[in-house]
Amino acid sequence: MSEKILMKGNEAVAEAAIRAGCRLYFAYPITPQSELIEYMAKTLPKVNGTFLQAESEVAAINMVYGAAGTGKRVMTSSSSPGISLKMEGISYIAGANLPAVIINVQRGGPGLGDIQPAQGDYFQATKGGGHGDYRLIVIAPSSVQEFADSASLAFDLADKYLNPVMILSDGLLGQMMEPVEFKPRVSDEEIEKHSEMHYDWCMRPNEDGPNHHHHEINSLEIDPEVLETHVNKLAEKYKKIEENEIRYEAYNINENNEMVCCAFGTAARIVKSAIDTLNSEGHNIGLIRPITVWPFPTQAIADSIHDKVKNVMTFELNLGQMVEDVKLAVNGKVPVGFYGKVGGVVFTPEEIIEKIKENLGGK
Amino acid sequence: MKVIASRPKALTDAQFTYCPGCLHGVAHRLIAEAIDELGIQNNTMGVAPVGCSVFAYKFFDIDMAEAAHGRAPAVATGMKRARPDMNVFTYQGDGDLAAIGTAEIIHAANRGENISVFFVNNAIYGMTGGQMAPTSLPDMKTTTSPYGRKTSDVGYPIQVCELLSSLIAPYYIERVSLLSPTDIIKAKKAVLKAMKFNTEKRGFTFVEFVSTCPTNWGINPVDSLKWAKDNMIPFFKPGVYRDKSVEEAK
Ligand SMILES: Cc1ncc(C[n+]2csc(CCOP(=O)(O)OP(=O)(O)O)c2C)c(N)n1
Question: Which CATH number is B24-249's, of 3.10.310.30, 1.10.1740.10, 3.40.50.970, 3.40.50.11740?
Answer without folding.
Answer: 3.40.50.970
